[in-house]
Amino acid sequence: QVDVAAMVQLFGYVDVTDTGFIVAVLSIAFNPLFWNVVARWEHKTRALSQVFGSPRAACYCLGAVILVLNCVRSHCFTEAMKSQPKLEGWDYHWTYYSGLAISAVGTLFVISSFLALGFTGTFLGDYFGILMEEKVTSFPFSVLDNPMYWGSTAIYLGWSLMHASPAGLLLTAVVAISYTIAVLYEGPFTEEIYRRKQKGVKSK
Length: 204
Known about the structure:
Number of helices: 7
Helix content: over 70%
Protein name: Phosphatidylethanolamine N-methyltransferase
Structural class: mainly alpha
Shape: elongated
Subcellular location: Endoplasmic reticulum membrane
Organism: Pomatostomus ruficeps
Enzyme class: transferase
Largest sheet: none
EC number: 2.1.1.17, 2.1.1.71
Distance between the termini: 56 Å
């Protein structure tokens, strides 16, 4: 069972009306919404591919924008943590090193995911018609689904623990929720793209 008293104590440290906290929440929620809307629009219209001259160039452009937005999100996340108090009793070496270890594991998942998928595979290339030959099943996909998302979440969790930040923990929960929603939308849509590919191959 959830310790309600502990939860109340934890979030008693967080001022959810703080401007920096609100900006961080909005930046976290905006990113997956942005790339899903833009990628689906591209899949439907091929407008970006026409503007940039090729699907690959358009995908690289969107990927660059996503990377910039992720940097902005991380900055907002960090500033929101700095502006709010640390949790009493957590500002110790064991918390710091635990957070460091979790962040390291998250970084491993993110980097290995990128290496396994490549740039276009990571940044929604299938929405641009740049399809992979087969589903990636090597590490880290052999360990868990959507390792890029959960690796990123682990990085934020570790970062929050390193700063003994209740605000960071709450924002990490927002990250996890936003990615969960993104997976619910992206998963079936991506599967449909590859289903159509297979159907087209069989019909030839």
